[in-house]
Amino acid sequence: MNLLAIETATESCSVALVHGETVIARSELAPRRHAERVLPMADDLLAEAGIGKHALDAIAVGRGPGAFTGVRLAVSLAQGMAMALDRPVVTVSSLAALALEAPEDDAAILAVIDARMGEIYAACYRRDDDGGVIALDEERVCIAESLVLPQADAWNVVGSGWATYREALVGRLGSEPRSADGTSYPQARHVATLAVRAFKAGRAVAPEHALPVYLRDKVALTLTEQMGNGNRKS
Predict the structure, then answer these.
(1) DSSP string covering the chain
(2) Integer Cα distance of 19 and 176 in angstroms
(3) Is the pLDDT of residue 229 over 90?
(4) Which of 5, 77, 119, 144 lies most in the core, judged by the most C-beta atoms within 10 Å?
(5) Helix 34-49 and helix 68-85: axis angle, to 10°?
(6) Alpha carbons 230 and 163: distance in angstroms, whole number
């Protein structure tokens, strides 16, 4: 099959193309430049594979959670391309895609994205036997100090939330994780991996039903809240 995947929920802008048994991808850290980079990256991948957009069977997208503008951009682009091509969309959790950045072992995975405003987006997973992940709990947005985790003998942690809230997260884990990487971001190549499985399982949807997941409606702090947070952190 041919499937194009887009992931722009964080500072990382990435696009991947599944072409038969091959996956090719482009990724770069491009804060505030996603809108200008994502379509040229997609065109480059299609040119490299030697196929046109009409050869695509579906469009996949990291549907969040993540930065509001990044999530909205990715879903809007996926919907627009799918409508123009009369193709379905496969939505994939950006946290599930992030979890695939963890080492391939038997430890539970905490995928955690810095949500700004003193909060994190988080969800826990285990790897399955087919290259994917199994959710151990629900996606949520919360402060790191209040994160409730399922029971696990060992943990791998991935995502920018670790870089920002390491001390608080170690407190919730109870000990240092087996591995931790605060520089990992959700990647389109992992969105593509999960999307192919979902597509084959019949979980593609019409473009208008491909919806973003923000987890919170509020996307900015008031001046008073900013001052309060600054006082709390000090």
Answers:
(1) -EEEEEE-SSSEEEEEEEETTEEEEEEEE-TT-HHHHHHHHHHHHHHHHT--GGG-SEEEEE--SS-HHHHHHHHHHHHHHHHHHT--EEEE-HHHHHHTTS-SSSSEEEEEEEEETTEEEEEEEEE-TTS-EEESS--EEE-GGG------S-EEEESHHHHHHHHHHHHHHSS--SEEETT----HHHHHHHHHHHHHTT--B-GGG-----S-S--S--HHHHHHHHHHH-
(2) 40
(3) no
(4) 5
(5) 40
(6) 19
And the tokens for 131?
């290259």
- Rounded distance, CA 133 to CA 128, Å? 5
Measured between alpha carbons, how far is 70 from 200 in angstroms, rounded to an integer?
Answer: 27
The per-residue pLDDT for range 49-80, each reduced to its tens digit, is: 999 999 999 999 999 999 999 999 999 999 99
Alpha carbon distance 1, 5 (integer Å): 13
Q: What is the length of the chain?
A: 234
Q: Are strands 119-127 and 140-142 parallel, antiparallel or unpaired?
A: antiparallel
